[in-house]
Structure to design on (560 residues):
């Protein structure tokens, strides 16, 4: 079978054997924003695999801007709920299934959504509080193998836009990650005044010569991740994602006395394999 | 005498009579980022006034990127401290004074700075908690006519960069300010989850059809201003600034049970007149 992680900026395909082992993998930059998603991308990228179906695809390929919209499944959502809402697409003699996203509402009734992360989470097969750090970090409560509820923090995107487009970025110089400045930022996030005040300190500490230009991106990152971590009261967090980010979050959590464990970042393929098997 | 408010993006000059009344005013876009600040700008903009000195200038003209740096005066700072640190500049047969900025440190020792706002504040001649909303909002404690301490919130700049450069802006449509969406945002800022989570709700509520594209900028503004207001526990705020912003802040404060009073936004000229008189 073929498992595909088709996101906004990237396309990753895995060819699996009958036991679910990855026997081949390809990736490209043909995310849905780069190239209109549809049969052509599959023909171009993995045309020689297509007779090895079934094909299961997760991520933004199922969004409104994707190939076909696979509407969000409301929480609580586990394997069976998601499997039953797979969206089928057909072309020529091929067919594929798109994994739906998951939605929920917080205590105030405000909606939240994920698309792609549900596949990673269910592939891990663990219960607990799972954090997937990133552009839009997800904090997910999993109980009995089902996603009970979750909430998103825009940490990564706020970091990126402040660095690229605000006055804070103007004083920054490229440099290696600075663990000490990061820790200062995490501690700063617990002070009075709120995030909007703490952010300005990136500028003023630089202005006063108390923060090196090459350290200020790490300080900013610590402030933002510190605020994200503090707004989630929990004793243990399971981290799921790219090592560069999970390492940072583990460092930040340690400063706040929160235990962390890192999950297998490649778990999504296992979930896609199970979903494919359910339709084989 | 001549009073000048010389900022990052604008240049405003006022010609005053012996009693401090404004008899003429000129403004242009020759802020320090647009045109290198120095005698040439004064010659071009108000060359025919220059023999009517003394000239007193406040704002970013005294920053490191300005004409001459007028170092920050530490808090507590009142009229006499600021008057004694005026920085003199001379050219041809003219001379002028640049008003220094003010600095302080918060309880955690992190520095904060203002430049230009001190002139507006001292011109008002009132004690209390003064908020100057804007790109970098200032919250200032004034006691006995002196600036005791202050703190900055990057509210306006965070709003602008999120609107222009983040995924939140992509769903926005231009529209009139929407007081109801603004109020929803202010209320939202009191919910669990923190600012980084509340921001994502601008997207998800839009995605779910629960927030109109033309209302989402007002909702975002309400979330940010709500967070700013909530992180400052106070019973009464004196608002100082452009009417469009002080009106928004007054609406937000009212929702949180905080009383507001609006100060005269043109007070800076009074302070500049007093400073000029001290050197005449």
């Amino acid at each position: 079978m073929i498992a595909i992680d088709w996101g906004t900026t990237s396309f990753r395909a895995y060819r699996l054997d009958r036991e679910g082992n990855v026997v081949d993998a390809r990736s490209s930059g043909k995310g849905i924003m780069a190239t209109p998603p549809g049969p052509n991308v599959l023909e171009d990228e993995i045309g020689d695999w297509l007779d090895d179906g079934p094909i299961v695809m997760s991520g933004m390929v199922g969004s409104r801007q994707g190939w076909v919209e696979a509407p969000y499944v409301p929480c609580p959502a586990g394997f069976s709920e998601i499997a039953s809402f797979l969206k089928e697409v057909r072309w020529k003699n091929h067919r594929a299934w798109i994994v739906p996203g998951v939605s929920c509402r917080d205590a105030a009734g405000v909606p939240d959504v994920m698309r792609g992360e549900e596949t990673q989470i269910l592939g891990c097969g663990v219960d607990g509080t799972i954090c997937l750090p990133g552009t839009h970090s997800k904090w997910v409560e999993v109980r009995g193998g089902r996603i009970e509820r979750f909430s998103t923090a825009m940490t990564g995107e706020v970091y990126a836009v402040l660095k690229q487009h605000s006055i804070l970025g103007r004083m920054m110089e490229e440099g290696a990650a600075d663990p000490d400045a990061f820790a200062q930022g995490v501690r700063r996030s617990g002070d009075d005044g709120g995030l909007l005040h703490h952010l300005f300190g990136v500028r003023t500490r630089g202005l006063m010569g108390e923060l090196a230009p090459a350290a200020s991106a790490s300080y900013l990152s610590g402030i933002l991740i510190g605020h994200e971590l503090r707004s989630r009261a929990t004793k243990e967090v399971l981290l799921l994602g790219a090592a560069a980010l999970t390492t940072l979050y583990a460092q930040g959590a340690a400063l706040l006395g929160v235990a962390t464990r890192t999950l297998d970042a490649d778990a999504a393929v296992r979930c896609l394999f199970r979903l494919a098997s359910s339709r084989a």
